[in-house]
Amino acid sequence: MSELLKRLKGDKVIWIITLLMLAFSLVSVYSFVPILVKIEGGTPFKYLFKHFVYVLIGLGVMFWVHRRDPANFSKLAKFGFYLAVALLLFTFFFGVRVNDAGRWVRIPFVGLTFQSSDFAKLALIVYVSRLLVKRKEVMNDWKEGFLPLVTPIVVICALIVKDNFSTAAILFAICLTLMFIAKVPFLKVASLIGGGVALFLFIVLIQKAAPDLRILPRLETWENRFFNHANSDENIMENAQVQNAADGIYAGGIRWTGENKSFFGGQGIGDGVVKEYVPEAYADFYYASYVEELGPIAAGVLVMLYLILLYRIMRIGLSSKKMFESYVCIGIGILILSQAAVNMLVCTGMFPVTGQNMPLLAMGGSAMIMTCLALGMVQAIAYKQQKEAGEIEKPEEVTEEESQVFETE
Q: Whole-angstrom Cα distance, residue 264 to residue 296?
């Protein structure tokens, strides 16, 4: 492990947590896919191999990105935003539909799918971070400062909300947080919130008045999830997923058992039953399957790992001399933690059912790759800080490209 960490630059704690989670994800995915085998066929090994390929791609992306100059992230931010818009529009018209939601793009020849919103989330965070720095001095001006900042947020969130309300809401909240940190005038932020809520309610009214237009085809699903959650005692059948997830968490509780009355929690890896009948037990309901098989102590460890990951990311961001890098790190840290928190809250019945999987652990190729890409960007910023602080010496013999990187930083 020590030899491996010598080759990995940046924050060692983030590397260790990432590698541990990715390694454990192989075990958990293999254990949590019985429901997928029943629905789509195949064997658990088939899905394990597919997930393993995504893990390798994610690690490769993270390693490559963490050696890049963070200044390139700002230069490519605008291109990334336009690419995200193009992918979302393509998904809107030609995306693969599952449960009346068109979120995926099928990659030709390989048969794999890519969720365009996963890329759009990171692209928007980076682009907003760039705009907050670039237009800092004119932010009081509506035309020159505020509107150019707000337009990308509205465009991306509007394209995502049709099929994935929770993702759009989380992304919108992260952008508002970055604006608050950047000291954007409060009245302008309040106008964005009010305008966003008013626009969404207007679209809801249109959907109600003319459902055949299918502007928000999943509106009825959202309403059922919210009201069923609020009245779960009266809607047991309609809210069965949450009830089953709660039962799984209860089954994973600590108890006394065995001849020696040994103290442990969880049913054990592979011995859970929630994964047999709860849809998305390997993704949206990952936490329920995890707690059932590993118990509450392991669940607490998982929470601590995510909090440590957030702390290390925030620490890197706040240590940066460039505000763009600080905004990017803060946005990425909040994004990862919010996804994990929503997954846990849904599984424990404290939040309406929504589609947020567990970062670095749940099965999902595009989510896995984009999380690794985001962490690679954070590590690139950390690596740059280490070189500036003299913690990493410039090698005696370097390539011309590497030499330019040291000189520019």
A: 9
Structure tokens, 172:
């919108």
Cα gap 372→107, rounded to integer Å: 20
The position carrying tokens 């965070």 is 125
* Residue-wise pLDDT tens digits, 29-61: 888 888 788 878 778 888 888 899 999 999 999
For the chain, domain boundaries: 2-390+398-408
- Max CA-CA distance within the chain? 74
Query: What are the DSSP E strand ranges found in 209-273?
Result: 254-257, 262-265
Integer CA distances (angstroms), 69 to 322, 326, 330, 376, 407, in order: 13, 15, 18, 11, 11
Q: Pull the structure tokens for residue 378.
A: 């954070």
Q: What pTM was computed for the model? A: 0.85
Own/partner contacts of 252-259, CB < 8 Å, gap of 24 or more, are: 252/291, 252/292, 252/293, 252/294, 252/295, 252/296, 252/299, 253/295, 253/296, 254/295, 254/296, 254/297
Q: In whole angstroms, what is the distance from residue 129 CA to residue 182 CA?
A: 9
